[in-house]
Design goal:
26 strands; Archaeosine Trna-guanine Transglycosylase, Chain: A, domain 4; elongated; alpha/beta; 27 helices; 5-stranded mixed barrel
Length: 807
């Protein structure tokens, strides 16, 4: 009563802000004080009756609270005990005396002092039946809470029961039940004991509901754990009894082993349920029955898959670039795109933005032997992942992708699941080789089955027919390879980002042979680098006379043939007077007669022959187009297994020459008395495409005018009846083919000007590339045949040594 009397007048008191606590009247509370301003306040309190005001902060994160940072309803407290700790902080025990209203701040430094006045609470709330019922409800709820709440000691209950004042009871309960700071402040600010108890009843009801639900969850978990432990002990006892009785035979041992493997495999819920079901079936069927073997095989696959085994971590982009440069020569654009792809994956990993549905699937397209498969292996090494590979060439049954159903005899999982199992990782770099060679028949369409594998929206739940439970393929990095995209179905092609890998020039092949192929083959043949010296001239001879390919596969094979001869000589005679030298003479001795000759060596000795350039899935090639004339009625005869498009190009070429015969000084009357026969040698090989149009036209014009086509000249381009030369594809491969054949001048459509940047600088330095817009330009370059009133200023520039010159 004395404290209340002291607080009935406006007075100035030091204020101690509380970060996450509220001190209620009539309640003893321990506090820790450690902030500089709070320490200054404690140290300057008088030694006698140490009274001060306390109020909770509005924002607990404010470190040095000012007047605007505290609630303006607080509590008058007296410090009962004060202990200074070794670290300079204080431990207090404070007794709440009465509620205060904070009026204004009178001092800010070194600590807050405030003007306060009493904030009385009505004392006439104790009577009445309603108040009695509210009081008893509060006590009952608190009693239930003490019974089940682990953070409330049982000693609190007698104290609560002995409190007769409803206001005192409200503060006592609010101080001990689990409430947030703002909820405690609300209790302090409520005007009456009735309002405080009603609000506390709601809080206690909520806390009781939460604790009861938590207790049910805990009980259920303990029951499940007890059931699992009981089952484990019973099984162990059963095994011990069987061992004592000598009944634990081999079959029981296998079943027990499978059960242990299932426990350790970390199977998803559906897979585990299926495994346990099959294990029960295995225990029931005789061990000698065929069904037992089928179940064992299935369970071996199920527990052998890497459900939770990952090998890849965060991608190191710098390391990836170094690995690609170390493993592959040139291919700068392709390697840069791969590095960009890996860099995007790393940033998305670091920032938690992994969205598999938006990531492209790379497809390396190019002729054989240019390094498509080895690029995939390098990516796996750069990412620290396992490498898996499935060759799809000739696959015509969708069960090869999705697997066979277990109802069939000899059923097996699909190639995808088999490769994942061999890789022993659920996130390998998975290369799908030769997707352009997938076939389809009455057994299904494998390319359609492949759509599910490659679609990130579906493959997270890929269901193999044999496995019959979902397996997550979303972590796998799929890479496809193809020689040509023409045979890849449109739906599959739409999911791929194609990276073209063109063929290599002679200089590139030389560097690849020196840096990669020779060291590899020396080791494969048991030879040391110091024992064999391979001259540069010998390698160039192999490239020019014994291989004619876009890649380096045959080059490696021929180098191996030479090294076998060297290994035999080193084994028989040993190395004397330095290393065994492989020069051009030894190459010819080991490989025999040359297999390829430069086309430039075959001089075009009569009219009617022109050299064209064509693209094939294995790289560029040159073709000869031969034309001759014979008495007839002006007909055109075509041979050499030409496709429909190529036949139409020949018809267009002849029609153009007949239409413009006068301009090119061709006897019109004679055209009606002779037949033209166009033949493309290598008749056993089908030929198709419009890019031979200029070659066919040049051959026909040559035979009709009697002019021989210039030596060392090849050409490519589609023609129109208006005399235009249209662009073509595969320009780099075609120019490479011309260079390999010894041709030094090539006519290409002017609209392919942008593609010239893809041709290596050393190749442009060694071959003359002339851009042509019209058939007048073609016939002028090939036959020196200029039509009447021809003006050469219409010619587009040509390219020589990488620079354009005036035409």
């Amino acid at each position: 009563m004395a404290a209340k009397t002291e607080a009935k007048q406006t007075r100035t008191l030091p204020l101690l802000p509380l970060k996450n606590a509220v001190v209620f009247p009539h309640v003893l509370v321990p506090l820790a004080v450690g902030r500089p301003r709070s320490l200054a306040l404690i140290e300057q309190l008088p030694a006698g009756d140490r009274l001060l005001a306390m109020s909770a902060q509005i924002d607990e994160d404010v470190e040095e609270a000012g007047w605007d940072d505290v609630h303006h309803t607080g509590t008058l407290v007296r410090i009962q005990h004060l202990i200074k700790l070794p670290d300079g902080t204080y431990q207090l025990a404070v007794q709440g005396l009465a509620r205060l209203r904070l009026l204004e701040a009178t001092q800010h430094d070194p600590f807050l002092t405030v003007a306060v006045e009493p904030h009385p609470e009505p004392a006439d709330e104790g009577g009445g039946i309603e108040m009695e019922a509210l009081y008893r409800s509060a006590v009952d709820s608190f009693q239930q809470l003490v019974a089940i709440a682990p953070y409330l000691p049982g000693e609190l209950l007698p104290t609560a029961i002995n409190i007769e004042d409803p206001l005192h009871l409200a503060y006592f309960i609010a101080n001990h039940v689990k409430l947030a700071t703002d909820q405690r402040q609300e209790i302090l600010e409520l005007p009456t004991a009735r309002a405080k108890l009603e609000r506390l009843l709601g809080h206690m009801a909520h806390e009781l509901e939460v604790l009861e639900l938590g207790r049910k969850i805990q009980t259920k978990a303990e029951e499940q754990m007890g059931k699992a432990q009981r089952e484990y002990f019973l099984r162990e006892q059963l095994r011990a009894i069987q061992r004592e009785l000598g009944e634990l035979d081999q079959d029981a041992g296998e079943v027990s082993e499978l059960r242990e493997r299932i426990e350790k495999a970390g199977l998803p819920a559906e897979a585990r349920k299926e495994a346990e079901r099959e294990l029960i079936r295995l225990e029931r069927v005789p061990s000698a029955s065929p069904e037992s073997s089928v179940i064992r095989t299935y369970l071996d696959l199920l527990v052998g898959l890497p459900w939770n085994v990952s090998t890849g971590g965060e991608v190191d982009v710098g390391k990836a670039r170094g690995v690609l440069d170390a493993d592959h020569y040139d291919l700068d654009k392709v390697k840069q795109r791969i590095v960009e792809h890996l860099a995007v994956r790393r940033l998305k990993q670091q920032r938690g933005l992994m969205d598999r549905g938006r990531e492209p699937i790379l497809c390396f397209a190019g002729p054989p032997g240019v390094g498509k498969t080895s690029l995939g292996q390098s990516i796996a090494r750069a990412m620290g992942r396992k490498f898996a590979r499935a060759s799809l060439g000739g696959v015509h049954d969708e069960a090869e992708i999705r697997g066979h159903r277990r109802t069939y005899i000899g059923a097996m999982p699909g190639r995808v699941i088999q490769a994942i199992r061999r890789a022993e990782s659920n996130d390998p770099v998975f290369m799908l080789d030769e997707v352009d060679k997938l076939a389809s028949d009455w057994r299904g369409d494998p390319s359609s089955a492949l759509l599910e594998v490659l679609d990130p929206e579906q493959n997270k739940d890929f269901r193999d027919n044999y496995l019959d439970v979902p397996f997550d393929l979303s972590r796998v990095l799929f890479i496809c390879t193809a020689n040509t995209l023409d045979t890849v179905p449109a739906a599959l092609r739409d999911r791929l980002e194609v990276l073209q890998l063109p063929g290599y020039t002679e200089d590139e092949k030389l560097q690849i042979a020196i840096k990669f192929l020779l060291p590899k083959q020396l080791g494969a043949h048991g030879l040391l680098p110091e024992e064999v010296e391979f001259t540069e001239e010998a390698i160039r001879l192999i490239i020019r006379e014994y291989t004619r390919e876009a890649g380096v596969r045959n080059l490696e094979r021929e180098i191996a043939g030479v090294l076998r001869r060297a290994a035999a000589e080193v084994a028989e005679k040993g190395v004397r007077d330095g290393a065994f030298c492989v020069d051009p003479a030894r190459v010819r001795e080991a490989l025999g007669k040359r297999r390829f000759y430069d086309v430039s060596a075959e001089r075009i000795d009569r009219p009617g022959i022109a050299v064209g350039l064509t693209w094939t899935p294995v790289g560029g090639e040159i073709i000869f187009v031969e034309a001759t004339q014979m008495p007839g009625k002006g007909d055109l005869r075509l041979t050499g297994q030409l496709g429909e498009v190529m036949k139409e190009s020949a018809q267009a070429a002849l029609s153009f020459l007949k239409t413009h015969a006068d301009r090119y000084r061709i006897d019109t009357a004679r055209l009606e008395t002779v037949d033209i026969h166009v033949h493309v040698p290598a008749g056993a090989q089908p030929k198709e495409g419009p890019s031979a149009g200029v070659t066919v036209l040049t051959a026909i014009a040559s035979v009709l005018t009697g002019k021989r086509v210039r030596d060392g000249l090849a050409m490519t381009g589609e023609i129109t009846l208006r005399g235009k030369v249209l662009p073509i594809g595969g320009l780099k491969e075609k120019v490479l083919a011309a260079h390999r054949a010894g041709i030094r001048k090539v006519l290409v459509p002017a609209r392919n000007d942008a593609d010239l940047d893809d041709i290596p600088r050393e190749l442009r330095d060694d071959i003359e590339i002339v851009l042509v817009e019209t058939l007048d330009d073609v016939l002028d370059e090939a036959l020196a045949l200029r039509p009447a009133a021809h003006r050469p200023s219409d010619r587009r520039p040509a390219v020589k040594s990488g620079n354009r010159r005036a035409g």
